[in-house]
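Morning F.,

Quick status update on the modeling queue. The single chain you submitted on Monday has been processed. Sequence for confirmation:
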Amino acid sequence: MQPDGPLTANVRLRAAVAEDAGVVTEVFLASRTATMPYLPRLHSDEATLGWITHVVLPDTRVWLAEDAGTGAVLGFASLDGSLLDHLYLRPEVRRRGIGTLLLEAVKSASPQELSLHVFQKNTEARAFYERHGFVVVDTNDGSRNEENEPDMTYRWTA
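Structure tokens below.
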């Protein structure tokens, strides 16, 4: 991977399969640790792998962003109906267009509207979604998520 600059020309998207559970878990954990250090650690790595294996991969549509040269997984997005459930990148590849590629794939799969939840403290993610046309439609005190962290609901409509 290059240390700086856009990577999008070297990135391909593909559908995730069950065998990707380990690497999806790695990306999820690394991203949350790097970008949301304020979140409590509620589950072990093994429990998180179980959740990715038995809930996220079989119950949602998941795209992987891979380095076209090495096949390394750089990030993933998960769509549940019209809910963007997850969009996470490896910390070292942020701000290189990969999140936008994943979001475009999700928008293509849900072309009329998308919604998502984001923690209020996650100002970088909020700015990303706002740049892509999402607007806040709801805020919450944290009572609807297991982290008990205030969050927001964003919506995008075509």
